[in-house]
Design goal:
The chain contains 21 helices and 19 strands. It is an alpha+beta fold. It folds into 3 domains: 4-358, Catalase HpII,  Chain A, domain 1 (Beta Barrel); 425-510, Catalase, four-helical domain (Hemocyanin, N-terminal domain); 522-692, Class I glutamine amidotransferase (GATase) domain (Rossmann fold). The strands form 3 sheets. Strands 1, 2, 3, 4, 5, 6, 7, 8, 9 and 10 form a 10-stranded antiparallel sheet that branches. A 7-stranded mixed sheet has the order 15-12-11-16-17-19-18, sandwiched between helices. Helix 4 (166-174) crosses helix 13 (461-471). The chain is globular, with a radius of gyration of 28 Å. The termini are far apart. This is Catalase. The active site is at 57, 130. Keywords: Heme, Hydrogen peroxide, Iron, Metal-binding, Oxidoreductase, Peroxidase.
Length: 701
Amino acid sequence: MTTKQDTKQADLQKDTVEINSAQPLTTDYGIKVNNTDNWLRAIMRFDHERIPERVVHARGTAAFGTFKLHKSLSDLTTAGVLIDTSRETPVFVRFSTVQGSKGSADTVRDVRGFAVKMYTSEGNWDIVGNNIPVFFIQDAMKFPDVIHAVKPEPQTEVPQAQTAHNNFWDFMYLHTESTHMQQWAMSDRAIPRSFRMMQGFGVNTFSLVNANGKRHFVKFIWTPELGVHSLVWDEALKIGGQDPDFHRKDLMEAIDNGVYPKWKFGIQVVPEEKQDKFAFDILDATKVWPEDQVPIQYVGEMELNRNVDEFFTQTEQVAFCTSHIVPGIDFTDDPLLQGRNFSYFDTQLSRLGPNWEELPINRPVCPFMNMNRDGAMRHRITKGNVNYWPNRFQANPPAPLSQGGFISYPATQQGIKDRQVSDKFKEHFNQAQLFYNSLSDIEKLHVSKAYSFELDHCDDPTVYKRMTERLSYIDLPLAQKVAKNVGGDTPKKPAKDNHGQKAKGLSQLEFQPSTPTIASRRIAILIADGFDHSAFSAMKDALQKQKAFVFPIGTHRQPVTAETGEKVTPAHHLPGMRSTLFDATFVPGGKHIESLSKNGIAKHWITESFAHLKAVGSVNEAVDFIHLQINLDKVKVASIDGSKVQDSYGVVTAFGSPDELMKVQNAGESAKGFAERFVCRVSKHRCWERELEGLVDGVPA
């Protein structure tokens, strides 16, 4: 039986054709072509096939999926997508970086776009958000300036996709309202491990309106099932050169392998009558709603389960608008949102033309009819002899509220209309302190390193000296550490006393999977001729049962021969791959250790993995090889429950037979066996203790 959900999914694909068929090559007008080498028209077509790239969020990737509601919100809204728990709503989600061009790298330090298009039964609803819940400015009127400042400097057109330059930090200092967002951008949130491992936030304040006409203010949140995880900065820099497509390939790889990324959908709501009860203005996009004051209610789930069929027609032509809402959801007087509602729609006219909402990826899957007729790239053919309302046939009439027509909330207005902001909007430092105070020690360390890197690249003393002074409004030790590193004037006292308050949900280390998992984690196994095949195969099987992605990495890509004669074809060879592109590494024992010990790339692989705080595992003959590369005599060596398995700062080693070592029954903290202990360490994402205790380079004094 065909369901409504099946019909919606089919509608999204009704313009899709398959090129891998016997269909001959034709011209655009259907004539079969018999000679492609002497076809001048193809060049003419090629000369005109580019469209303008997005001014911001140019670099992105996307996937299809579904949204399911678990808890009806009928007490808050009339929006069917937030009421009907029997629905399965198709979605298209695009992730992106903000500042770089289409050709920039995935792993730059930047805010990430997190835009969700829901093809609901009432029309398209776009939640156009970021992986950070706040923004640099309060009013959209400043948006051209902040983007001009963050883009490459006009006299040189450098640097690409970086904030580490004079103009950006000059703008940041001169706009104190950016102070809170700076902290987020300098935190680990700006260098995510994966699009699948970052939160999404609607950023702006919207309204929910119920059947009785009562309004609640609302924020929208997506929280990943896999937890919130990041790269380390040295790793992010290297991946930018080694594999600039790292994040988009990561998303496609997970979906292709059936490990579908999922996010919990949450809302924060404030009744209209309580909007003035907070120390901050709830319409200010530079402020969060702290969870201890406005709890998150998780009411649904989104899963991405299908990769795009063609990048240009789907990922590149998809267009999101904050103004795309459905009945039961409405706007607010958030000044940033008001500007976005105009700007997002307007920019699509430049990129895609006036009929951009008719493109297959953008059009709704519910019935739609309007009076649009003309304009470039018009797709739809509408029969009939009227294109206006009212008309003598009563054709295409407006829909009243009772038939699902959209009605704006009749908000009460009072006072004098003027271009001003409230005193709450003018307070710019309390939440910057709140964010920094709420971070873990390792996250605070990374914030100081990020500011130090960014301001070190500013060559105008006015810029970096003023910015280090500004940090004393947040935390004096932070300001002093950064000033020392970048050459600023060391502040002697805080410019503003730190209030010492903290809030739940600001540290990303709070977001860990409910049960340990290594699903979709990329794990390398290093092998050379003479490796122990039984240890290799047992470990590979154990990891794959946990849904990890396992990659044999050999000294060459032709089959590698084990001690006992078995052959394994590596996924890559050492000169063609780097440790930065994997979450963990395992080295089996065997005679191949003699070869690996003479291989500079293999040795660096282990050293670099340790420096990037990743789990490293080895057994039998490989144990000494691992210890030698990372100089483990500097650190403590602890056995687990007196067994032969040792776990020293995430370096897990053992001696014994593969049958004994590779069983995985318990991957939690009490894990005793080698494989289960290694799985536990990988599931933690990083061994932060190495950096905190000075076991890796680059820790500021």
